[in-house]
Amino acid sequence: MAMSMGAARRGKPKIRPPKRPTSETPIKDTWTKLANAIREIQNHNASSLSYEEHYRYGYNMVLHKHGDQLYNGVKALIVEYLDKLAEEKIIPTFPRSGGTRGAGKLGGGAEAIERALEGDRFLKAIKSAWEDHTGSMRKIRDILKYMDKGYSLANGLPLIYDVGLTLFLAHIIRSSKYPIHTHLISTLLSQVQLERDGETITRSTVRECTDILLRLNVPEREGGKTVYVMDFEPEFLKRSAEFYGLEAVDELEKGDAAQYLRRVERRLAEEADRTVHYLSTTTQPALQELLVANLLTPHLQTILDMPGSGLVVMVDSDRIADLRRLYTLFLKVPKDAGKTSLRAALRLDIEERGKNVNEGSSIEAGPSTIDQDDDQAEGTGKGKGKEKERERPKTTPANNALSSALKWVQDVLDLKDKFDTILDSAFMGDKQVQVSINEAFQSFINANPRAPEYLSLFIDENLKKGTKARSDTEIETALEKTIVLFRFLSDKDKFERYYKNHLARRLLYARSASDDSEKQMVTKLKMEMGFQFTQKLEGMFTDMRLSNESANTFRNYLNRHGAIPIDLNVNVLTASYWPQPIVATNTCTFPAALQPAMETFQRYYDSRHSGRRLTWQGNLGTADVKVRFKARSHDLNLSTHALVVLLLFENVKSGENLSYPDIKASTDLPDSDLVRTLQSLACAKFRVLTKIPKGRDVNPSDRFEFNENFTSPMARIKIMQVASKVENTKEREETQEMVDEERKHQIEACIVRIMKDRKTMSHNDLISEVAHQLSSRFSPSMSLIKKRIEGLIDREYLERTDDMGSYRYLA
């Protein structure tokens, strides 16, 4: 208790029972004494009052049925005092500015400082009046405890302290005599606005006033909520919305998306801090929603597309922090609208970048060009300390086409790495964003019809021996990345065809850098596509292993049956495993010098296998032969077809030549193979034949003679077949025709497999199921499926039902 309890006594104080009023002490006098005491309390003179005495006055008035007089009399005294507080403490401190000027900035400098000081002075007056009033009410409540218990509760009336709070609301905060309410709300809003504009305010004062509003409740008929919720918060949110709506427009006009997002982030943090420190945390959800609705939701596309600073520039410059901020803020937009806009913008950006990558890889290979991989020479030099030299690949259309193909894959991988980093570092690995990124990559990768070929070429470049040494780790990393791109391909069957061709060349030419890496790649493809996809690839490895084992057995056979004039090493290939261009029947008349060795191997093979037919293929074979020129002899490593052609000149006299028709008649090689072979011998780096007339193109009218004057510093020279690693337009059309033909069979097999299981099926369900089952290999068109269904009906595998809307399987 702040008031005095009368004279101090030694020992335990004893409270005497209240005396009954007598005629000498009428109720009127009792009320007068009690009213004077209440005024003394309100005037801060309670130290001279006796708690016991004045408690007894209130007790007697209630006891003798004068509770209503006491209750209403105290209310009147409180009102009287509150009016006095308003006139003496609050009204003189009214701010001269009168409140906020709209939703914009309030101005800076001296004006802002003066406004802040005026507002602080007024709010302190409110706070002082509140503390004065509540302090008095606590003392009044103590001496009127019996009234609260014996009268207020019994008659369903508010306790006297609560009455004091209600009267403070009615006569101070919501006074009808003075515009205190208007000034209070305006001043609070003005202080908030000043701080938003960067000025300094006294937060503790604002906090104390908002606490007052939080402790006062409006009448039940008006909602019964706090004054803060009913009077201040709606106006605060309204002004905030107006302010941030204008600020968004002003800031966006500056044209810097990153700067704008930083400001939004700062505003969100500031407002959250503001609600914690001097407003109410209950305001925070609505305030944050308001900020998002004004600063972000209407401007999502503007931010993303802002020239010179939007999403594209952020990605270009790898601004991870800005992208993370963009993602975090866009997540706050309701109904996933922010993330949806971000995903759409990301997809468009990636597709545009992918389009540029596709346009940069449109170099065509010439119809007859030097294979970059094969156009290498190596040998042991004699004299001048040259131990080993390599020829630099020529810049040819094929080289350009291959470089373009490899560059396309590398550019796509770099782009994927870039967005993978952004996804993990900026977008927190968001699965939905990842889906959009993957969809964009799938879209532009499959927009390039040569993607399957390019990807297979890239793998080929990484798996074969070359001038660029690669560690096993580097090869493994490259293969792992290519599998990611492989998943995006829709025409996986076309990739399979190219991959089989490239693998066959690596195996037959012994160019694989590592058998382990080759097998790891096949294992990765099997994990992605299943056993059927890699069955033939694994069969190719089996053939090579069996061929190596057969070579040892053949040598043992020769030891028993006599040697042959040449060292022969034969790879026996199973036709069903190897790609058609490899095992296709190629006519070639082998010269007499090779016949004995071939016949010996044929006898050896027939002795070990019965019922098998061996067909000799020279299109992918190689040979080592010593050739004597005028200056010196050289060991040439060349294709089997080149050896067949070169041996024709063994008995041709010096100065004589052979015509193209003569060579064709003697070798029986197809024109395409013969032209490439003659180009490699007469038109490439090492011209062991001379073409008449000179030139890089071979024509049927050309003649050829042995170049006796050929010379080179290298003892061993590698002359590989002229060919293009990258398909030209004609070859690509032929490949597409073969793929289309194979797809027809796959579609028909799928239809029969489904119908055999289902027996009867509707047209739409059948098409949907076929498309679904084949989607892992390629995406069949609806028209193609319909044609294959018609074909099966014609061959009586299926029939239409009576309603013509379904099909029935015919066993």
UniProtKB/TrEMBL annotation:
<dbReference type="InterPro" id="IPR016159">
    <property type="entry name" value="Cullin_repeat-like_dom_sf"/>
</dbReference>
<feature type="compositionally biased region" description="Basic and acidic residues">
    <location>
        <begin position="384"/>
        <end position="394"/>
    </location>
</feature>
<feature type="compositionally biased region" description="Basic residues">
    <location>
        <begin position="9"/>
        <end position="19"/>
    </location>
</feature>
<dbReference type="InterPro" id="IPR045093">
    <property type="entry name" value="Cullin"/>
</dbReference>
<dbReference type="GO" id="GO:0031461">
    <property type="term" value="C:cullin-RING ubiquitin ligase complex"/>
</dbReference>
<dbReference type="InterPro" id="IPR036317">
    <property type="entry name" value="Cullin_homology_sf"/>
</dbReference>
<dbReference type="InterPro" id="IPR036388">
    <property type="entry name" value="WH-like_DNA-bd_sf"/>
</dbReference>
<keyword id="KW-0472">Membrane</keyword>
<feature type="domain" description="Cullin family profile">
    <location>
        <begin position="450"/>
        <end position="682"/>
    </location>
</feature>
<keyword id="KW-0832">Ubl conjugation</keyword>
<dbReference type="InterPro" id="IPR016158">
    <property type="entry name" value="Cullin_homology"/>
</dbReference>
<feature type="region of interest" description="Disordered">
    <location>
        <begin position="1"/>
        <end position="26"/>
    </location>
</feature>
<dbReference type="GO" id="GO:0031625">
    <property type="term" value="F:ubiquitin protein ligase binding"/>
</dbReference>
<dbReference type="Pfam" id="PF10557">
    <property type="entry name" value="Cullin_Nedd8"/>
</dbReference>
<dbReference type="InterPro" id="IPR001373">
    <property type="entry name" value="Cullin_N"/>
</dbReference>
<feature type="region of interest" description="Disordered">
    <location>
        <begin position="357"/>
        <end position="400"/>
    </location>
</feature>
<dbReference type="Pfam" id="PF26557">
    <property type="entry name" value="Cullin_AB"/>
</dbReference>
<protein>
    <recommendedName>
        <fullName>Cullin family profile domain-containing protein</fullName>
    </recommendedName>
</protein>
<feature type="transmembrane region" description="Helical">
    <location>
        <begin position="151"/>
        <end position="173"/>
    </location>
</feature>
<keyword id="KW-0812">Transmembrane</keyword>
<dbReference type="InterPro" id="IPR036390">
    <property type="entry name" value="WH_DNA-bd_sf"/>
</dbReference>
<dbReference type="GO" id="GO:0006511">
    <property type="term" value="P:ubiquitin-dependent protein catabolic process"/>
</dbReference>
<dbReference type="Pfam" id="PF00888">
    <property type="entry name" value="Cullin"/>
</dbReference>
<dbReference type="InterPro" id="IPR059120">
    <property type="entry name" value="Cullin-like_AB"/>
</dbReference>
<dbReference type="InterPro" id="IPR016157">
    <property type="entry name" value="Cullin_CS"/>
</dbReference>
<keyword id="KW-1017">Isopeptide bond</keyword>
<keyword id="KW-1133">Transmembrane helix</keyword>
<dbReference type="InterPro" id="IPR019559">
    <property type="entry name" value="Cullin_neddylation_domain"/>
</dbReference>
<comment type="similarity">
    <text>Belongs to the cullin family.</text>
</comment>
